[in-house]
Amino acid sequence: MRFGINVPNFGPGTSPQRLRDWSERIEGAGFHLIMMSDHVALTPDVQRLFPAPFYDPLTTLSWLAGFTRTVELGTTVLILPYRHPLQTARVTATLDQLSGGRLVLGVAAGWAPGEFAALGLDYERRGELMDEGLEALTRLWTREVATYEGKHFTFHDVHTAPVPLRRPPLWIGGTSRAAFRRAVRYGTAWHPTSMTVPAIAAGVAALRARGGPPVAPRIKLRITDAALPAGRLAGEGTPAQIYEDLARLRDLGAEYLVVDTTYPGVPLDENAHWKAVTTLTEQLVDLARGTLR
Question: Which biological process terms from the Gene Ontology are attached to this UniProt entry (predicted)?
Fold first, then answer.
């Protein structure tokens, strides 16, 4: 299992220097993946949870590619309907080339009606936009000249170079039937976020029944002194509970695990953030050894 950190690219105090510092520390600590969130229009429904400043993830990751060497760089998650697939393909292929083939693209259909409205998009058709976007994107990634005809996107004889250095792992977020269908058809992983371990296990079972891809979850890392009751999110609780979660997710076949130490609406505490990451590192060492301190 490979481990990543969701670096907050938003909120008061976030700056290019902080983003660079965290990324270099994460790579230095031996983690495998740095991921970032995506929003375009900080409408009131978005701003309440993801306050400004909000740094664009693809631009920021391209910049961080120059300060890192081995850690993978990804999105958790890019809202695919917000962008034309031609733009998404061009930017992601460029990022993958510039980083030496290190892009991991997590995508989802989106949840904020106000943001869709600000962008002139129909929130009720986000599923259609997502489906066409995935089909067009995979075509643009894998062909020298691509053509696509859909209800929302149409283009002919578009030259695609540069294509990605490697075809980026494509993680599909969401828990709906449509999300599972997309994960089976297009994904290299299902990417659930902020769920309980039993809920993740149920999703894994449903995907396996359809011949779907492995799970690559994002969990909320919140360490407590006292044990939390049943129903807690994966990654929340005492070190012993979190250890059990990591072991269970490994047994469910998770090839990647992304941890998030920030909570929407809660001011970011950089010291607490890194303390949680350090504790996670210790847990991973114990997991590898098969022991718990």
Answer: alkanesulfonate catabolic process
Full-prediction pTM beyond 0.85? Answer: yes
Which residues are registered as beta bridge partners of 145?
A: 159
Amino acid at 180: F
* Each residue's pLDDT tens digit, 241-271: 988 999 999 999 999 999 998 766 666 667 7
CATH value at residue 138: 3.20.20.30
Hey, which residues does 35 pair with through a beta bridge?
A: 6, 74
What is the chain's Cα-based Rg?
Answer: 19
Q: What type of residue sits at position 277?
A: V
Instruction: Give me the helices (H) in the chain, please.
Output: 16-28, 44-47, 57-64, 85-98, 113-118, 126-142, 177-186, 197-209, 239-251, 270-289
Q: Which two tokens stand for residue 72?
A: 């993978």
In a domain, 113, yes or no: yes
